[in-house]
Predict the 3D structure of the following.
Amino acid sequence: MATRQANRCKSDLPFRFIIVGKLPHLDGMIFQWERVEKSTKDKDCRDPLLIIEWVLLSQHRSKRMTRPQELVAELIRKARTWIRKLAGSDSECIHIPIEKNLGQITKAILEHLIHENEALQFALDSYTGQISIHRPAHKLFREKIQFKLSLKSVQSRRPLKALTVFTDASGTSHKSVITWKNPQTQQWENDIVEVEGSPQVAELAAVVRAFEKFPEPFNLVTDSACVAGVVSRAEQAVLSGVSNSALFNLLSKLVNLISHREQQFDVMHIRSHTDLPGFIAEGNRRADALAAPVEMAPLSDIFGQAKISHQLFHQNAPGLVHLFHLTREQAWAIVSMCPS
C-alpha cells in the first residue's frame, strides 16, 4: 500500500474512452493513460492504465433488433455525457476497434462509416477529439477486446445483376410464398409452405427460406415494409425483448444467415397490388396470386382469372392485356363490368 496507490483520477491527465467486450455484451471503459518510464531493472513499475469508470448498456432496449453500430453509438453517448460531468470537457480520444480485413483503414473509410449511420452521427456530434482504431498496449485490452466493428456489409446499396426472388404471404390462407424466374429455363418456380401466425410472420418465414435456398447473390423483393426493414437491419444484430418464440426463432435464423453470408444481396420494398408495368411488378403479382386463398386461386379459364385478378388488384385494360394475353375488347369488357 505504501508503494502502490489507487487514485480516482489525475487532474493533469486527459480522459479516454474505449469499447470492450464481445457481442452481444459490449461495454465501455473511461480511463486515463499515464506515461511510465520503463526500466529493465524495475519489475514493479507502475501500471499506466487508470480505470476511472465502466460504461454499461441498458438491459431494456426499445428496439427488438439493434445493430452493432447503434450499440457502439449508445456507449459513446453515455461516456461523453459522464466525462463532461467528471471533467467539464470532452474526452481526448475515443478508441473504436475496427476490423482490418479490408486493408488499410483510411480517414475516408471512417468518415463513410459515420456518414452511413445516423446513431454514430448523433453520438459524435461536435466531438473535436481523436478517433483511434488502435488500442493502448495493455494486457487488459488484449483480453477484453474481442469485438471489432466491421466496415464490410453483405447488403448491397443498389440492385444486383443477379437472380430476383419475390416473397409474399397471406393471413387468410397462411401461405408463405417464394417465387423466382429460373435463369436457365426462363420458367417461374415456386416454394410454398403454410405458416401459422400473422402475415408478417409468414412473410418473414419466406424470407428465411430464401436466404437458406440461395447462397449466391440475389435481389429480394417484398411488399411488406416491416419485413424489408427487418432484413436491412439483421446483419450482426442483437435481439432483445422478443417474447413470441416462433418469431424469435425466425429472427435468430435470419440474423445468423445474413451475418455469416458471403455473397451480396439487395432487399427492395414494393407496394402491394400495383399494376405498374415491368418485371418487378409482374413477379410481385405472381407472388400475390400464389399466396391468395384457394377460392381466389388461379382458374383454368384465362378470362375468369383476369376477372378475379381485376377484382383484387384493379388493373387497367392494358395491364390485363399484358398479363393475361387478352384482346383489348375482352380487357375493356372486364374493366367496364367492375362496379368500382
Remarks:
- The CA atoms of residues 208 and 254 lie 6 Å apart.
- Confidence is low (pLDDT under 50) at residues 1-6.
- The two ends are 88 Å apart (CA to CA).
